[in-house]
Amino acid sequence: MPVITCIDDLKRIYKRRAPRMFYDYAESGSWTEQTFRENVSDFDQIRLRQRVAVDMSGRSTATQMIGQNVAMPVALAPVGLTGMQCADGEIKAARAAEKFGVPFTLSTMSINSIEDVAEATTKPFWFQLYTMKDTDFVSRLIQRAKDAKCSALVITLDLQILGQRHKDLKNGLSAPPKLTPATVANLMTKWRWGIGMLGAKRRHFGNIVGHAEGVTDAANLGAWTAEQFDPTLDWGKIARIKEEWGGPVILKGILDAEDAKMALQVGADAIIVSNHGGRQLDGAISSIKALPSILDAVGDQVEVHLDSGIRSGQDILKAMAMGAKGTYIGRAFVYGLGAMGEQGVSTALEVLHKELDLSMALCGRRRIDELDRSVLMVPEDFAGRWQ
Ligand code: GLV
């Protein structure tokens, strides 16, 4: 058993074990990947203020996100195709999150279905919704999430159309993988993954195949998704979905203060400052750089969360000290999952927790509600002067 000390250790094992096509899917940004890179490197520009001779006993990272108790301010982000990184990936990740005491968010584009995850867990999870042209299908998805007792609906706003990720096109990404000579050659080196997949509950998009009109296999699924994401999504539709859902709504993909104000108007319970992990608009600002202006605009009226770029507990600390009320990890848990299944996700959460806890202590803070901007040293020109 290798000694895992950081998220990068899990990433190295994940790279060895997961099929190339799915590693590349997770590890890509769109086009030049500038935003993908800056999501991470912009965290590095912020420094933490070391404080000493402060009583460090009785520390806790526990807090709340949308009024729900969390062991630390981190939710598992919705990640498409998670069940291709590792057999039954969504079930395993949801179980690890439940054991740790943090929310799991199931993607519409998951392999395990809403019902699979509900059956395998004992506490409510969150469901992420993509809006599709087929409104009956969307209504059925919402009803299924209600029936599964999901405790929040996360509506993704930044993927009405798909940003181009070059590697996915070159690899011919599909679920399950299409068996081209190149794919077969790569899969032959991934025996652990293959054995797991033989016993997997599902190998197709579980929320869609058999639920959406006319979708029975992966071949026509590809065409269906390209056609079905709703390019006409607007604030009016979001308000109607919120009404149909009737529970807590989190709006994901806000990167601009004006959009944050619109989210407030439709009554979002929380917003997620996000650029989709750098997978959509390449050239967009990093999430951590967008956070201050969004907090200034709406931070006292709605819970502001952050995703995109979190790879360590120190990153979580920086986002929280900046004023976020919660963070999300996507790639950081996928690395763990692809490396070691459920245990790997638990390890990822433990690594992040330890980093967060110890770094808070070294900043002289014992609780999440003691974090504020005085913990940080932020370069004067951090947010940049943009015209
Ligand atoms: C879907 O959410 C993706 O980024 O591929």
Automatic annotation (TrEMBL):
FMN binds at residues 78-80, 107, 128, 130, 156, 252, 274, 307-311, 330-331. Gene3D superfamilies: Aldolase class I. Glyoxylate binds at residues 25, 165, 276, 279. One of its GO terms (cellular component) is plasma membrane. Its cofactor is FMN. The keyword Flavoprotein applies. The active site is at residue 276. This is L-lactate dehydrogenase [cytochrome]. It comes from Thalassovita gelatinovora. The lineage of its organism: Bacteria, Pseudomonadati, Pseudomonadota, Alphaproteobacteria, Rhodobacterales. The gene is lldD_2.
